[in-house]
Amino acid sequence: MVKHGKKYIEASKKVNPATAYQPQEAVGLVKKVAPAKFDETVELHLRMGLDPRNAAQQVRGVALLPHGLGKRVRVLVFAQGEAERVAQGAGADYVGGEDLIKKIEEGWVDFDTAIAIPEMMGKVGKLGKILGRKGLMPNPKSGTVVPMNDLPRVIEDARKGRVEYKLDRTAIIHVPLGKVSFDEKMLMENLTAVMEAVVKAKPTGAKGQYVKSAYITTTMGPGIKLDLSSALALNAS
Description:
Layout: H1 6-12, H2 23-32, E1 41-48, E2 60-64, E3 75-78, H3 82-89, E4 94-96, H4 98-105, E5 113-116, H5 121-124, H6 128-133, H7 151-160, E6 162-166, E7 172-179, H8 184-200, E8 211-218, E9 224-225, H9 228-232
Parallel strand pairs: 3-4, 3-5
Antiparallel strand pairs: 1-7, 1-8, 2-6, 8-9
């Protein structure tokens, strides 16, 4: 059994585990019960009614958070030739081909998102074991393998707060929403963007209840259950 510290236990007393909170109320509460002294990340956890082993029930996509994640995103682009110059001009932090691949093979992974042009994937593919474990592998399904002309847009999206989500092996989706220091409006708008994206990404092979439960929490704080129908109905328009 996990043992929690005094701060966590005190924070937990403010959350009723039997209550499904309205999203706005939950966002206000999550800011109050963050026990750590540092600026904790606010997270969304969705338990899905999907079978991770079924290819027709996979969920993977991208959500653009209106207010980002509260940190500077370091962008790496695998490109060469004219595409390399385009990526550099669009403000990517690291751009290259074989040089970057070798550097990563040697253990360097000091970046937050990786993008590649299709022509580079034959070489980048060998980094699958390294980047895949860290969720950094470029993938067409997540919109990180794009033609040269799309590089400026994708790099800009990454800077703004582009977050990837996908179904894990336990049928849960974990997504960061921002920082505890964000005001409630910012967190609500980021939450809405993620919920909209996940709802729209429902696979055709899904059967039964698509989303079974939704919780928000912070890095060190207790989980707060969301009223599921209200969370699924969130819409930015």
